[in-house]
Design a protein that fits this description.
single chain, alpha/beta, 6-stranded parallel sheet, 12 helices, 12 strands, 14% strand
Amino acid sequence: MGSQEKQNVILTDFKQEDNWSFRIALENATKEKWTGIGLTSNYDFNGSSGGGYKSLVRYVKYFWLPFKIFIKRKRYERVLAWQQFYGLILAFYFSIFHCKKTIDLTVMTFIYKPKKGLKGKAYDWFMKRIVCSEYVDRFIIFSSQEADYYSSVFGVPKDRFHYMKYVVADEYEKYRDEITTTNKYLAAGRSNRDYDFLTSVWNENDPPLEIICDVYSYKGKENIICYNDCRDEAYLKKIAQCYAVIMPFYDENISAGQMVALHAMMLGKPVICTKSATITDYVEPDETALMIVKDSDELHKAMAKLSDQTFYKKMADNARNFFVNNYREDAFAENIGEIISCETREKVNEKENEV
């Protein structure tokens, strides 16, 4: 099969619509056709993916889809892995079988967080084997500070990590009728969240607080409700119906919270978040988000500021406008397409010069 007959494919852990704007923009940027394969493996904070059987199914899917691509690898020219583990495990298959590199591979949404114990050692070995190999051409990261960090951790050139801002589709019109400003706060997300802090400082006379996280459970104060299985439309409706979104982080240096922040701004909701070196790439402090230290008094001062309706309306309007002006899905795809095309041309030129 000639290279011109090979396919370009996008691997996602969600169903891809026929008119997906990201794919269309990627085709425009690369001047090539892309097909999509979607296999839901990890609902993250929007679904029910924790524990026992469900975790086993998730990991089986992580390895199964890349294996299907690997055994038919001669069919593919480029692979873009929106779900990072689909791309990482595909590279792992190439590595353990010592195969010739035949696919241009881009791993998106790359996040690395060291783990503890024996499981952590195995995970670190797995990640370092992949990242230090030749099989991944580029990693897309969503925090400007991560390139230096990952380059240092893995001992690879910094230019393998390409920073760009994460985006989500603008679904404002779909949820416009759901938008209210009831005095109810929402916390959502799984990765790097410190909900123990939030529930411990939330007073019984504070407004209702809803937490959406599939791996966190809470029973205690009557004004706190935790949802373990709230995803997709139900999750976005919860954001539309809340007063503001709160994100408490464990580690301020780990990339997390971008998607929740974007969904909040998309629907015109102010954000309160504890100090984070990564989330500041996505929000405007004191314009779309109130940045606080992880302290009860600081949290309640921020809530008091939002209780001023004039200030609240300004923050809500800023959030929506900032999203519209800065987070276009088609521009995101175009940037990725340009990176892929540019690096491909550079590699072709290098080979021609060698000859």
